[in-house]
Amino acid sequence: MAARDSQFPKLDVREATKVYHTRSGDLLAIDRCSLAVEEGEIVSIVGPSGSGKTTLLWSMSGLHHLTSGEIALDGQRVDGPHPDISMVFQDANLLPWRTIVANIRFPFEIKGAKPDTAWIDQLMHRVGLEGFGQRMPRELSGGMQQRVALVRALSFKPSVLLMDEPFGALDAFTREEMNHLIEEIYLDTRTTIVLVTHSIDEAIFLSDRIVVMSARPGRIANIHRVPFERPRSLEIMGTKEVFDLTHTIKSEIVGDQISKARNRKNAANLSKAS
Ligand SMILES: Nc1ncnc2c1ncn2[C@@H]1O[C@H](COP(=O)(O)OP(=O)(O)OP(=O)(O)O)[C@@H](O)[C@H]1O
Ligand SMILES: [Mg+2]
Fold this sequence. Notes:
nucleotide-binding, 4-stranded antiparallel beta sheet, transport, Rossmann fold, P-loop_NTPase, binds adenosine-5'-triphosphate
C-alpha cells in the first residue's frame, strides 16, 4: 500500500448522481449522494430494494460512470477500475473448471501480474481453507466459496474492500461466522470496508457507521454511528442500545417505503379523478 496523504478521506463520494437511460425513459437511481469514508472505517449501506445501494457501491469501485459528481480515493479522482479497490459480490463467481487456487490466480493472469503466493496461502489459512487449494468449486459449500471470493478480493492487498450483499445467500449461522471472519480480517489488515447489506444485525455487528438510503431516487437519508469497541461479541446484539438502533433504522427504511407508496397511490387516484 502506498503512503497516503491523510488530509483526504480514504474514499470520498461527492454528489454522486446516476441516471440510467432505459427504453422506458430515464431513471434517476441515485441523487447527489455524498459520503466521506475514512481510512480504516467499516461503513454499511442499508435501504429498501431499488434505493440505489448497488449503484452507489459500483460507482465507488470505478466500474460505473456517474452522470454527475465524482469519487476520489486518497484525494485522486477514480475514473475506472482501480488496483487499490476490490469487490466481493453476492455470488462467488468462481470458474467451475478451475481449481480454487487457479480461480484466485485468474485475475493476476488477466493483468499479467505476479501473485504473492505467500500472502494467498496466509489468507487461505486465515479463512480456514488451508488444504482446499486443489479442490474444484463444486466440492465447496456456498460459505466456503464465498471465503474463496474473499481471498481472491484480498489477494491484491487492496486498501478498500467493497462488498455487495456478500453473505445474502448464506444461512443465518454461516452468515454470523462470516461476520466474525470479516471482523478478524479487518483487525489484522485495517482495510477500509464498504458493505451493502439487507441485514441490520450484520450492519450493526460490523460497522462504524451505517448509511440509510431512501427509496428511489436513492438519497442518503441518515447516517448512524455504531459505538461499540472491537472485537465485538454477539452479546452486544442483545443490548438495549442495539435494539433501539435496529428499531430506528427499520422505521427509517419501512417508513420511507410506506410514505412513498402512499404518495404513488394518491397520485394515481388523483389522475383517475381528473
Ligand atoms: N443497469 C441498469 N439499467 C437500468 N436501470 C438500472 C440498472 N441497474 C439498476 N437500475 C435501476 O436503478 C435503481 C437502483 O438499483 P440498484 O440495483 O442500485 O438498487 P439496490 O438498492 O441495490 O436494490 P436491491 O436491494 O434490490 O439490490 C432500480 O430502480 C433499478 O431498477
Ligand atoms: Mg443491490
